[in-house]
Design brief:
Strand order of the largest sheet: 3-2-1-6
CATH architecture of the largest domain: 2-Layer Sandwich
Strand content: 25-35%
CATH class of the largest domain: Alpha Beta
Distance between the termini: 22 Å
Number of strands: 8
Shape: elongated
Low-confidence stretches: none
Radius of gyration: 18 Å
Structural class: alpha+beta
Number of domains: 2
Largest sheet: 4 strands, mixed
Order of helices and strands: EHHEEHEEHEEEH
Amino acid sequence: MAQSALLCVRVLPQAVAARNISLEELSAALRAANVNTPVGTLEGPQQMLTLQANKQLRNAAEFAELIVASRNGIPVRLKDVATVEDSVETTKSYANLNGEPSITLAVQRQPGANTVRVVDAVKQALPKLRSKCPIRST
């Protein structure tokens, strides 16, 4: 099973304010360019939105060049209003089970992937994952 990387987008408040761009406008531009699978989050000062993507944009460098708005006839790219970097983890989630910190494993089939093969691969990987858990998994 291939590991899917996440995309970390940190909005630069002064940059979006200077261009009069809202988080909703950024989010809409990202959704319009990419419509299938979550790849990361769009983080702003007061909210966080999940990014959805298909095979069009594969990494931070490609997302950075995405035109998210136009002001006075000049295109505004994502890199103009945010820092964009490849990441392998989300830093904004927390899980617990019965009041104890826990790990949540979520698996999403990528566009074009065979669902049966994904399920089989997950089932094959579970014993190894369970053996690495400090306590019994449920």
